[in-house]
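Lab notes, practical 5.
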Amino acid sequence: MRTKTSQIPTADGQAEAFAAFPDDGERHPGVLMYADGFGIRPVLRDMARELAGHGYYVLVPHLFYRHGPAPVVALPEHIGEEDRPAIFARLMPLIEAHTAERALRDADAYLRFLTAQPEVATGPLAVTGYCIGGLLAMRTAAAHPGRVAAVAAFHGPVGADGPALFSRLTAQVHLGHAAGDLSPEGLRELNQALDAAGVSHTSEIYPDTVHGFTMSDTDAFSASGLRRHWDRLLPLLDRTLRDG
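Output from the prediction step:
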């Protein structure tokens, strides 16, 4: 496995990014991975390495590069519930400043950089994301229907943009919701909107989970939720990036 840190040229500066990919001299399908609001840190690097180990080139950009290098907000080794108020007090202005327009400009740069890497195969790409990164993944897929074949979002506010976003999706979609984030009624409504837009999707509530369940450096972590995440994500990528 190889890893590297790069600077991605964007319309607004240079975005730091972490990449992991197989060290076999071959070209592999590209996956853009959006971090949660806490950003690039050891757990995200580990998840990128895990996914790369299945034969993908995984790129994780620093979302808040306009505000400084990662990490913009200092984080403890383990993010407990008692840490969240102070951290989010500093993070929320950055998240609010990361408008849809900024996110789409950045997505253009990230995908352009990803496809230009010599280790990335020609063909479709996939996008995955966590928390706010899940919404960014959905926006990226909707803005690039000819390039993004699969999108997966986990414990993210994926319905924030409403049916207008769904109507632009051509990628196959998987949404993994935290039980603490979405009610069964809310899930039915979301899935009905996806159906009405003609989106090929799976969308489910992961049992006994709370927001942030994929992140092993937080109190929200669920080992079973993370396993289910891999059980859903890997077949989606294999089906869309390899079989198609």
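Observations recorded by the TA: Helices lie at 42-52, 84-97, 100-116, 132-143, 163-166, 184-196, 223-242. The first helix runs from residue 42 to 52.
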